[in-house]
Amino acid sequence: MVGNKAISTDLLQDWYYHMLLIRRFEEAINEKFLAGDIPGFVHLYIGEEATGVGVCSALNRTDYITSTHRGHGHTLAKGAEAKRCMAELYGRKTGYCKGKGGSMHIADFGIGMLGANGVVGGGFNLAVGAALAVQLRKGSEVAVCFFGDGASNRGTFHEGLNMAAVWKLPVVFVCENNQWASTTPIHEATAVTDICVRASSYAMPSAMVDGNDVFAVYEAAVEAVERARRGEGPTLVECKTYRIKGHFVGDPEQYRTREEVMSQMESNDPIKKFLERVLPEKLLTEEQLQAIEQRVAEEIEEAIRFAEESPYPDPEEAFDDLYVEEETSHA
Question: Compositional bias (Acidic residues) spans (predicted)?
Answer without folding.
Answer: 314-331
